[in-house]
Amino acid sequence: MRLFLDTADVEEIRKGVELGVISGVTTNPSLVARVKRPLKEVVREICALVPGPVSAEVLARDTAGMVEEARQLAAIAPNVVVKIPITEEGLRAVKALAGEGIATNVTLVFSPNQALLAALAGATYVSPFVGRLDDVGADGMEVVRTTVSIFRQYGFSTQVIAASIRHPMHVVAAAQAGAPVATLPYGVLMQMLRHPLTDVGIERFLADWAKVGIAPGS
Ligand code: G3P
User: Fold this and answer.
1) Separation between Cα atoms, residue 182 and residue 158, nearest integer Å
2) Which of 93, 76, 171 is nearest to 56 (CA)?
3) What is the model's pTM?
């Protein structure tokens, strides 16, 4: 399983990559708007920092516009993946981009059927939004589980990215569901790392060692 960061904040990405656990990044228009920088400039900087795929979303809603924006985004760096919403126009764009060898991440996926259509159109990734489904009283992770099992059954190469991850247990559930990727906010990455018993344990080890009076490293 791989972990991506779901952010356009370059400092967060730098810190995540330094930890050695982040192998890709996903962004969306809301996340890029938050950092108040031009999209292409941010994508270029992120692509230079991250060894793996970096998803950047189109804003156009018609097929021709999506394809044109996708070509421009893909020209920024070889690791750009173009995020396309799951609509009729989006599916047509995914098909056209697959024909041009441009990687896509089909986004705003809320059902296994939408994910299946994206895979059939030639998507590289699909992103079921787990947290947003949970928000409306549905079982978001069930969409991930079912989609992973359908893709496995038919040998689709499309990879599931568990997205809209809100807390560490979403990551555990995505891993159990067999999702090849989960994309998470930096805050959730830190929550995964920290445990109060780890902090207490370190303090206790240091205190015990200090009692002996021998210098550390001797
Ligand atoms: O980037 C797509 C997705 O992860 C958004 O998450 O928290 O805005 O539902 P959220």
Assistant:
1) 14
2) 76
3) 0.95
